[in-house]
Write a structure and sequence with these properties.
The chain is 34% helix and 38% strand. It has 138 residues and is of the alpha+beta class. Strands 1, 2, 3, 4, 5, 6, 7, 8 and 9 form a 9-stranded antiparallel β-sheet that branches.
């Protein structure tokens, strides 16, 4: 009888640990736990020294901030349990950058993001199911 109670407790613990709401909280916590550096944008890899310039931070307050080559960005975001990520009101300062084309592409791609996934230390941002940006934890 004691063995049956232990087996039931183990089964209950396993069910609680695998519940969807628990995984969702963990996923969101992972998104907000660190800042992220861009390592690939629109299929093109960034050199390590360049990746340090392009960063994104998702706050627990649903604010998104970041930096391109020379401009800071901010806005808000929302997520859901299916992996949707919506960035809203993303704006940036408008200083002239030496690589303005990459800066503009960064802002355009971020503005169109509609999904994300996290695999270890890698954040993958997608638009229409296509990978548009890959970032690593800072």
């Amino acid at each position: 009888m004691k063995l049956l109670k232990i087996a039931a407790l183990v089964a209950l613990a396993a069910a609680v640990a695998s519940c969807c709401s628990c995984r969702t909280k963990s996923r969101t916590a992972s998104l907000t736990a660190n800042g992220w550096q861009v390592i690939q944008m629109d299929g093109e890899a960034f050199a390590p020294q360049r990746a340090e310039s392009y960063t994104v931070q998702f706050g627990v307050d649903n604010r998104v901030t970041g930096m391109g080559d020379c401009n800071r960005l901010n806005g808000s975001y929302s997520t859901d349990t299916s992996g949707r990520l919506t960035l809203e009101g993303v704006a940036s300062t408008r200083m002239f950058c030496t690589d303005q084309q990459s800066e503009d592409k960064f802002m355009r791609l971020l503005s169109g993001v509609d999904g994300y996934s996290i695999d270890g230390n890698t954040l993958i941002l997608t638009t229409g199911g296509q990978v548009v940006m890959i970032l690593k934890k800072v």
